[in-house]
Amino acid sequence: MNQSKSIQQLCEILWQIENDFNLLETEIQNVKVWQYIRMQTYYTIAEKSGTLQTPHAQKQTIYGQLKKILTYAKSLLFYNPFFIFTRDIDEIVIDHPRPKQIDGRNIDIYTHYYLKELEQKNKHYLVLERPFLNAFHTKTNTKHRKYLDTFSAISSIKSKIFPLHLDPNEIILIKQWEEVIQKRLGVKLELQQLIRSAVSKYKNNYMLYRYLFSKLRPKKLVLVVSYAYGDAIRAAKDLGIETVEIQHGTLSKYHLGYSFPNRTDDLDYFPDKFIAWGEYWKNLKVIPLSEKNIIIGGFTHFNYLKERYKIITQKQDQILILSQGALGPQIADKILTQIEYLKDYSIVYKLHPGEYSRWKEYTSLLKLSKLPNVKIVKDEDIYKLFSESAFQVGVFSTALYEGLGFDCKTILLELPGIEYMSDLIKNNTVKVLQGNEHIIDLIKSFDQTTNGYKNISNEMFGNSI
Prior knowledge:
By secondary structure, the chain is α/β, with parallel strands linked by helices. The chain is built from 17 helices and 15 strands. It is 41% helix and 14% strand.
């Protein structure tokens, strides 16, 4: 394997390959497949090159497989969207699969408040939910919620019964893509299999979404994580249904779910409109839409909990470490090398949900967990942790921006993906731990006037409370 490349290098090479081969417009079996698999392929390349690791890997057990089968059966029988017989649906919302418990209820923090607005306006809506980590549904059920398990079940069965066959010219073209990716990035991809699977999935899902949307006749499709639902977006567009995405995480020049250099308003599988949290994200000019189609909506969940926890005083000796599924072992390694300088600090090590089942595989994190001043946390309210912690440390997690909104003094570890934070680094809003530096020196370099965090909160998250 070649030496791993930075995220910046990887993205720039991919953009050049896209331009050289016109990948975004090339069709395989009438599907603009590169648009459809762009983010998935990026993650695969980043993993194979050693830049990142799979962010949400999960252990497979016999019990887990059995529970997954039972969950599918329940979903197909009781939460099947095709069993809806009404036609007066104003909006269909595809929410984020990851649940968060707030006030005793499991919700999606990105769409929950939007749905409350729909109810206040007496709008009829349907929520479509994908299982979290490919297996389970834990959000609080309502009469408005159905599950997407039916789609994956039907698509999987159809793909096995009617396998997709590529024609000779398509195979030749895909081999050219494989060769140039291997030559320029040092990564060998089984692109034929990936594309065959993706095109089959697209065609099956498109057919199902189009049938469902035609039956329910919604005026609008609202979703989170658009790059996971290109088939649904295209089906809605073809039926004249407005498509809108609600922001769910950070945006940057190097986030390939949203960064399409020199492209606006003409991507087949990208929504018509985008609801951004604040002007900060719009001003990055990354989203591939014209300015009139980028709406500022505020991050209501963030503002709600910031108001709730404003009475909590920060602990000047508490450091919040924000782990990430794609970088879990590397982050732990970095912190372990610095821990001897942090004996006078309380370390709260917040795992990403995708790491809950596998964090004990991180050798460095296991060592850290045995220290008296280190606490490993899973489901604790991260906003409460922000309000308590004077400092936060991470790489490129969305949570780092939220921590900034809570006035946490922020240190970034120099690991793959730090490029996502380039604007914050340029503006001196954060500090970066580089080379042989000691983290304690950066901590002590902060003072009470550092970097005006209070101003950046409104710019990033709006005033939705």
